[in-house]
Design a protein that fits this description.
192 residues; alpha+beta; Alpha-Beta Plaits; 8-stranded antiparallel barrel; globular
């Protein structure tokens, strides 16, 4: 599993209905995209749920890096982002675990992304093992659709990404989910 996210920060007075319409029209195009575990079409809307900015920030969990490559530079969809907004930087992480929550069959309404630096003097193996244990606890919380743990070994950052069917009970950046594409979610998901 591999994760990625790009963030397109928009002007404070941007009409977020434009993004909502874009996702309503284009979102289903990835519902059967080969190699994609899930794509959460995420936004933050200034003044809603404490968001300080307007932002479109899709989050992906890939079942294969070939699928990710096809999306980014193989004509699989990223060109539409580049045409509309320019080419944003794409953050990426190595996947550690993805777990189904008790509300996997529900509709994801929110997502949280919590990033945590790994101390330079700590053993990454121990930190990751602790984070996997914590992910198992998080994945069992009411309202959790999916919980994932990823790591950036360049900056040694752990990221917990959680999809929620109700208002989140976890810290971190909070997003609204406009659409969820899950063509190969079962292939990347383990048991909680």
């Amino acid at each position: 599993m591999y994760a990625m996210q790009y963030e397109i920060t928009l002007p404070a007075d941007y009409d977020m209905q434009v993004i909502r319409r874009r996702v309503a029209v284009r979102g289903p195009a990835l519902d059967a995209f080969p190699g994609l575990g899930l794509k959460a079409y995420l936004i933050r809307e200034r003044g809603v749920d404490g968001a300080p900015i307007n932002q479109y920030a899709p989050f992906y969990l890939w079942a294969s890096t070939a699928g990710m490559g096809r999306f980014l530079w193989g004509g699989g969809g990223f060109g539409g982002i580049v045409d509309s907004f320019g080419r944003p930087a794409v953050r990426h992480w190595t996947g550690i675990a993805c777990l189904a929550g008790p509300d996997r069959s529900g509709v994801s309404r929110y997502a949280t992304r919590q990033a945590e630096p790994m101390p330079a003097d700590a053993d990454p193996a121990g930190l990751v093992a602790e984070a996997v244990t914590e992910l198992g606890r998080r994945a069992r919380l009411p309202g959790v659709h999916t919980a994932a743990l990823v790591v950036d070994p360049r900056s040694w950052e752990l990221v917990r990404f959680t999809l929620w069917t109700m208002t989140p009970v976890a810290e971190g950046e909070q997003y609204q989910v406009l659409h969820l594409s899950t063509p190969q979610l079962g292939e990347i998901t383990g048991a909680a």
